[in-house]
Recover the amino acids of this structure.
């Protein structure tokens, strides 16, 4: 595929979804190898990787909104839904960002020509490769691109003595101090003691006792135990006392 064709396809996807985000093209259609990408990255950042680690690929979950495109054929969503404004104060509301097929409670999305297809548990690349194989029975050598229009499946919960407790969408990397700020700050009688409960924590982490990390905001302000201001992960429960 020519560079111009790749650029045109990317531009069409960006324009149709309203911006950049998580996306993946079926890997068989990408002429650049992983080795080439790794060598280019090493040239830029060196062995130290100080430029930052590559982000882990997104895994599709229930409620996510996906755009599935076949090059030259357009959007394959059988029933497009608009991703409306989302307010984290309302658990069932949505965030703006285009339209696409929403992953239903049964873990599937509905697509033109092929019907209901499993989506939950796939990375975006895996899903693009999976759909390419299926769409090959409909189109001649299809180029399939899957874009994450809106993430609704990754959330964390804040409880206790903050101004605005609730369930929040994990749309971007956020640490414990930022979680408190996003929740409106400590309430009047808070002792600034925070516990983070994580079902699947790193087994070798010394920060956790059992499945719980204890964080003292006062100690943090004094420059102590800064490493405990960890990034929140999907499913985390933060309890503020």
């Amino acid at each position: 595929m020519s560079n111009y064709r790749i650029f045109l396809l990317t531009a069409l996807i960006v324009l149709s979804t309203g911006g950049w985000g998580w996306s993946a093209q079926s890997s068989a259609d990408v002429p650049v190898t992983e080795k080439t990408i790794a060598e280019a990255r090493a040239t830029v950042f060196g062995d130290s990787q100080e430029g930052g680690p590559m982000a882990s690929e997104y895994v599709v979950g229930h409620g996510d909104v996906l755009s599935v495109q076949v090059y030259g054929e357009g959007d394959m969503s059988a029933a497009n839904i608009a991703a409306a404004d989302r307010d984290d104060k309302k658990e069932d509301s949505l965030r703006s960002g285009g339209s696409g097929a929403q992953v239903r409670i049964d873990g599937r999305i509905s697509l033109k020509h092929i019907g209901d297809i499993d989506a939950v548990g796939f990375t975006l690349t895996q899903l693009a490769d999976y759909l390419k194989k299926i769409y090959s029975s409909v189109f001649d050598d299809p180029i399939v691109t899957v874009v994450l229009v809106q993430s609704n499946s990754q959330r964390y919960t804040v409880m206790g003595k903050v101004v605005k407790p609730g369930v929040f969408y994990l749309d971007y990397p956020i640490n414990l101090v930022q979680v408190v700020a996003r929740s409106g700050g400590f309430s009047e009688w808070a002792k600034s003691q925070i516990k983070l409960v994580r079902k699947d924590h790193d087994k070798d982490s010394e920060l956790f006792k059992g499945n719980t990390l204890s964080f003292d905001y006062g100690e943090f302000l004094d420059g102590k135990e800064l490493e405990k201001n960890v990034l929140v992960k999907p499913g985390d429960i933060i309890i503020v006392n």
